[in-house]
Amino acid sequence: MSAISTDLVTARGLRKRFGAREVLQDIDLSVSAGSITVILGTNGAGKTTLLRILGLLEPADEGTVAYDGIVPGVSTVTYDASTRNPTQDPHYLPLRRRMLLAFQHPAIFSSSVLSNVMYGLQLRGVSRAEAEERSMAALREVGIAERARQHASSLSGGEAARLSVARALALQPRLLFLDEPSASLDPYGTKLLEDLLLHMRDDLGMTAVVVTQDIFEARRVADQVAFLHEGRIIEQAPRDDFFTHPRDDRTRRFVAGELLV
Ligand SMILES: Nc1ncnc2c1ncn2[C@@H]1O[C@H](COP(=O)(O)OP(=O)(O)OP(=O)(O)O)[C@@H](O)[C@H]1O
C-alpha cells in the first residue's frame, strides 16, 4: 500500500432495515485504494448485507456511498438511498462493470466452468479469443484448469469457490468484494486464495473488501479491519492496531474468542 492512500469507497450513515429489524445502523466505512479491508463480525451481524449494499446489489434505506476514481474519467460516483434499485439503474452500470462480488455460494451459470469465467469478460466487450485465454490462465492459477470443459454445476463447493476467484483474476476489477471466500476451502485452497488476494493487491493494484468470521485470516491478509457487531461498526483500524490495541472492549473480547452478548 502506498504511504499516501486515497479512499476508493466512503460509506456514510448507511442504515438498512428488514421488516421491523434494523440490520445496519449508521455505518461509516472507508476503503483505501490498493488495500485489503476485512469486515469481521459474528453471525447475523449484517456483514453480507453491508457487502451487498457497497456492491450495489441492494439499496440502503439511508446514507450515501462515494466511489472515487473507479470509473475511468469520472472522479466520483455517488450512491444514495433514494436509488431504489441500484442493480437495475443504468447510471451505475460503468461502476458495476469495474467491481466484482464473489459470494460463498457463487452464482453459477448452466454451462462449462470455462464459460462461467469467460462470461464476465465477454459482457465487458473482451473478444472471445482473449476471454478464453485470460480465463484459462486464471483457472490454471486457482488449480482447476483440468475442470475447464466440465459442467460448472458438477463442481464441489471448494472448486466453486476457486471458480469465483478465477473470475476475479480474469476480470481484474478495480474493486473486489469477497464474502467468506475461504469458508468451503481446504487449508491448501485457503492458502492459495490468500496468496492470490495479496498478489491481486500488490501486483495488479486491486482493492478488496473481504467479509470473514476468521480472525486468523484477517490477521494474514488485512491492511484494515472493521468490526461489525449487531449492525454497527464498533471499530475500524489498521490491522496491527486492531489486534494489539483494540479500543473497544467488545473488539477485545471478539478477538480473544469470547462470547459477545
Ligand atoms: N432479505 C432479507 N430479508 C430479511 N432478513 C434478512 C435478509 N437478509 C438478511 N436478513 C437478516 O439480516 C441479518 C443480517 O444478515 P447478514 O446475512 O447480513 O449477516 P452476516 O453478518 O453476513 O451473517 P453470517 O455471518 O451468519 O453469514 C440477519 O438476521 C438476517 O436474518
UniProtKB/TrEMBL annotation:
Stated name of the protein: Amino acid ABC transporter ATP-binding protein
Domain ABC transporter: 9-255
Keyword Electron transport among record annotations: no
Keywords associated with the record: ATP-binding, Cell membrane, Membrane, Nucleotide-binding, Transport
Record PROSITE patterns: ABC_TRANSPORTER_1, ABC_TRANSPORTER_2
Family to which the UniProt record says this protein belongs: Belongs to the ABC transporter superfamily.
Gene source species: Candidatus Cryosericum hinesii
Localisation: Cell membrane
Keyword Transport: yes
InterPro entries: AAA+_ATPase, ABC_transporter-like_ATP-bd, ABC_transporter-like_CS, MetN_ABC_transporter-like, P-loop_NTPase
Membrane topology type: Peripheral membrane protein
MF GO annotations: ATP binding; ATP hydrolysis activity
A GO term from the CC aspect: plasma membrane
A UniProt-annotated Pfam family: ABC_tran
